[in-house]
Amino acid sequence: MVEGLLECGEPVRALPFCADLPILRAQALVDTGQHDLATLALASATGASNSRQRRIEAQLLMARGELANARSLLEQDTACMPSRLILAALHERNGELDQAEAVLQGLLREWPSGHNPEKGPPPLAFASLHTTYGLVERQRRNLDQAHHHFQKATEFAQQAGHLRHVAISLLNLGVVAKDR
Fold first, then answer.
1. What is the H or E stretch that residue 23 is in?
2. 3-state DSSP of 102-114
């Protein structure tokens, strides 16, 4: 249940159910911007590091501006869709627009027909993909393409019922309109 809540963008709802699940608790805390608490939760995890744990560690490193260390962790999980989405965001944040686009294009090739609830990733993953792609295109000053991707991000975030991501997508649409 906790993983489902996290995948659907409901970290606040997941928190009460993951007190004894330090890695999932850390993910919920990262997703709510509580990086210090996420670091503590992650430190209490036992056992071998897994893909989710490396992703959370990478997100915490990104929040601290340690992009090279974050990239190193993410590049260990290039087969993992969430890791690749975070890697694309890292490239975008670092101004490596061609690398970000290559990661995003690879993901779009894997899911050519868009969101398929039975086969594909959840709509929130598509919202994240299109948000990052929109940021890439905005940095390139391709405002029509940026608008397209932010509009798609809005649609997928609404489909997921993720109000925070809807708000972010609408804000990005407003920034593109201002830039025009």
1. helix 22-31
2. HHHHHHHHHCCCC
